[in-house]
Design goal:
The structure is a single chain. This protein has a single domain, classed as Immunoglobulin-like (Sandwich). It is 0% helix and 41% strand. It contains no helices and nine strands. Strands 1, 2, 5, 6 and 7 form a five-stranded mixed β-sheet that branches. A hairpin with a 3-residue loop joins β3 and β4 (34-40).
Amino acid sequence: MADITQVPDRQNLDVNEQAPRFIPRVDICDTGSELLMFADLPGVRPEDIDLRYENGELTLKGKVQPRHQGKAMYRQEYQIGDFERTFELHESIDSRRINAECKDGVLKVHLPKASAFQPVQIKVQG
């Protein structure tokens, strides 16, 4: 049983769109009581992140804002554009308690497990 799965990327059908669309890299680990998702979002401000849970899906999207406007650039490898990624959450995740913080270009999302799905230590009598 997987607690979280990636929803296939949705293609943007607007052919007039000029900015590239990015899919952020994500690590997910299980601590027992919750899943932790770490999304790599360099240069993204917390106010530019739209994180939503709806109909069993967690969607992360936003925009990378220009960083060096008006400066003469000698080399520019970091692009500007929108990003989006959607994950389907298993019923074991307590969606009412999901929370997140963004620091140093990393979004950390806490996905707490419902108490019925958390591991329980059983004492063995001897």
